[in-house]
Amino acid sequence: METTVHKTPPSAAEIMRKLDESKKHLRLSNIFSCIVSFREILDTFVKATHITESDRGLVAAALNEFQQKLADSHQFRDLYGAVTFRDNDFLTSYEFIGQLIQIKEDEIAGVLIGKEVGQSLSLDDLGQEERQKTLMMVSLVERGEQMVLRQLISENDELASLVLAYYNDTGINMRAAGDINKAIQEYKKALFVSPDDEHLFYNLARAYMEIGNREKALESIHLALTINPEFTEALKLQNYINQWAP
């Protein structure tokens, strides 16, 4: 005789514990894991008809606060652009995040199978294991999964250099082609790989200048000089930006 297993609906406390996991992902800059787990929480909450009104209000307030923090996160904006979530419209948030996830997965698939990517990364010159690790790094960069990425980079310096060069070169090529916003995105991805590279911040500053964003240009060149105060070209660019009126 078969028995039926009845799952106990999650309580408000359990939803809040799951939300803590999403917060942890955000703190660690694991953006893709963050939005995947947050979407699951939204789905659970929308369907949770058993929660009392008082508990529902508390959870809703916490969800509103978190999705605002997510939208304000520069790591999230770097990957997905500027997003606005409406308070208490959790079904729309759930559906929208699902679209972001699907679009990102499609983008990653396109990147990983692109011939230009393989050529830029010199994949044909690598062994099978090295190719897999290199493509894994690219996938992690595209998803914004920085915790695992940092571990891979620490174990594979040479492969990380290939990935860094790929994103930096792509940014340079996009800037030369006039697609400055795309160039900025690629430089920021390169910074996922090497967050203390003053030359990347220098390239980023030049790109911001081209779109007339003096504030971001100054911020980027300041970061370059914080890393290397004797970076001559950065000092020259900083002086130019200080005198520049876009």
Brief summary:
The protein has helices spanning 12-27, 31-47, 53-72, 74-80, 90-113, 115-120, 128-143, 146-155, 157-176, 180-193, 198-210, 214-227, 232-243.
Which short descriptors sum up this protein?
246 residues, mainly alpha, 3 domains, 13 helices
Topology:
Blueprint: H1 12-27, H2 31-47, H3 53-72, H4 74-80, H5 90-113, H6 115-120, H7 128-143, H8 146-155, H9 157-176, H10 180-193, H11 198-210, H12 214-227, H13 232-243
Structural class: mainly alpha
Structure annotation, total helices: 13
What fraction of residues sit in β-strands? under 5%
**Gap from first CA to last CA:** 78 Å
Task: State the share of residues found in helices, binned by percent.
Answer: over 70%
Principal-axes geometry comes out as globular
Total separate domains: 3
Order of helices and strands: HHHHHHHHHHHHH
Give an overview of the whole structure.
The protein has 246 residues and is mainly alpha-helical. Helix 1 (12-27) runs parallel beside helix 3 (53-72), helix 10 (180-193) packs antiparallel against helix 11 and helix 11 packs parallel to helix 13. It has 3 domains: 12-104, no CATH class; 114-190, no CATH class; 196-246, no CATH class. It is globular. The longest helix is centred in the middle third of the chain and has 24 residues, at 90-113. It contains 13 helices and no strands. It has helices at 12-27, 31-47, 53-72, 74-80, 90-113, 115-120, 128-143, 146-155, 157-176, 180-193, 198-210, 214-227, 232-243.
